[in-house]
Amino acid sequence: MSTLESVIWHVLGYIAMPLIILAGFAAVAAISLWVLSLNQDKKQS
Predict the structure, then answer these.
(1) Which helix (H) or strand (E) segment is 44 a member of?
(2) Which residues, including other chains, have CB under 8 Å from residue 9's CB and lie 6 or more apart?
(3) Which residue pairs from 23-29 have beta carbons closer than 8 angstroms and sit at least 24 positions apart in sequence?
(4) Measured between alpha carbons, how far is 9 from 2 in angstroms, rounded to an integer?
(5) CA 35 – CA 2 distance, rounded (Å)
(6) Model-level pTM greater than 0.70?
(7) Residue 45: predicted pLDDT
């Protein structure tokens, strides 16, 4: 493996974990807001 390939794989490896954590946080936040909006709609009607 060339030096460039090694650098690319290291950068991808270091970027992957924060992206997975942030994507999971965003997904949980979106689902939570959706569930809360469903409950709010039920209370209003």
Answers:
(1) helix 3-44
(2) 1
(3) none
(4) 11
(5) 49
(6) no
(7) 52
